[in-house]
Every structure is written in structure tokens, then in C-alpha cells.
Amino acid sequence: MTTTAAPPELVELLDEIDGILSELVRSTRARGKSKPTADWDADDKATMILAYRFIKFLRAYGLLARNGEGEPAAALARSLYETYLFSRWVLLGNGSEYLASGKHAAMRMARQLAEANLVDPKNLAAGILDEKPPKPPQWSAIADACGMKDMHAAVYGHLSNISHGNLFGSGVDLIAGTVDHRPHFKDLDKVALI
User: Fold this and answer.
1) Which of 61-70, 117-126, 157-166, 176-185 has the lowest mean pLDDT?
2) Which of 1-10, 27-36, 124-133, 139-148 has the highest mean pLDDT?
3) What Å distances lie between residue 76 and 25, 116, 139, 164, CA to CA?
4) For the chain, where are the alpha helices, taking DSSP H only?
5) 3 versus 120: which is more confidently predicted?
6) Which end of the chain, C or N, has fewer beta carbons within 10 A?
7) What does the alpha-carbon distance between residue 55 and residue 62 come to, in Å, rounded to a whole number?
8) 165-171 — which CB contacts under 8 Å span 24+ positions?
């Protein structure tokens, strides 16, 4: 398998992103050492989790994009955006809610695995399927709370489509009046590496 190297203008942009990434790593380490972890509250914990998550995703994005893997890199853009959005929300004092959302997601997956007979419910931790942790808010509600409602409306649908495998967007053709959830390949040669 061969990969296509990124075009020079993308390499230049990725070099700038690497500089931002280095500064993010430095400031995250400094923040992590600013007080003992035993004194961290939920907001501190959530902030550090999200910072490290963003760093890992941004590194992966850079590696994929530099090696000509535009589609998987583009799919990471949604994860980067969601991490950024969660970070802004946590900075408003919602660290506890963010940490609880992880438990909610884990329990939802455990229920789905049990319902699909992929795991024996008896092998799950006692009572895990009966717990009711708080459900995290919808992305649109988080964006609204962060003052990003308009930006969210403009970009999130497109990022979701890319993440779900449609590199070209929603598959909605307003002129022809059609909607197709499947990726289309018209004008494939005109698509720039993301």
C-alpha cells in the first residue's frame, strides 16, 4: 500500500499545528503540576482528561494528514471539535457532569452488548445494568451553553457526515431534490486532501 504525501500548503499548515500542539503539551504539563492531584476537583480532572485527549487526537490527525490519509484525518476533526466543545463546557463549571457522562456511555454499551447476547449479563458487575447515571446533554445544548450555537449549527452536521464515511457532506442535492445517506464519488478528483 502506498500513501500520497501531503501537498506543501498542507505541510505548512500542519507545521503550524505542531507548534500549537507543542505549546498545548507544555501548558497542560504545567497545569497538571500546578497543584497536587489529590486537591483536584471534578473540573480539574475533566480539564486534564480533555486536554490529553485533544493532544492525542491532534497528534493522530497530523500523522494521518502528513501521510496522505485525508479521510481518516477528516473523521478525527469531529472528535477534535467535540473535545473542544466539551472543554469549553467544563470551563463553565461542568466537570462533574462531564465525568458522569463517561459512566452513562459505558453503561449504555454494556446494556447493548447484553441485549445483543454478546456478553452474559451475569458476567457484568453486579447491578450495573440497573444504575441510572445522569445522561449527558446533547451537543447542541452544550454548544448553546458555551455561546457557540451558530458555529455548531454550521459545522457539526458536516463533521458528523465526514465521520460517518461521507467525505463530501450530507448527500443532500437541493437541486435534484434527493437525499442519499451513502457517500457519493462525483467530483472525486476535485476534492482536496483534508
Assistant:
1) 176-185
2) 139-148
3) 19, 28, 17, 11
4) 8-33, 42-66, 70-91, 95-115, 139-145, 149-163
5) 120
6) N
7) 11
8) 167/70, 167/71, 167/74, 167/191, 167/194
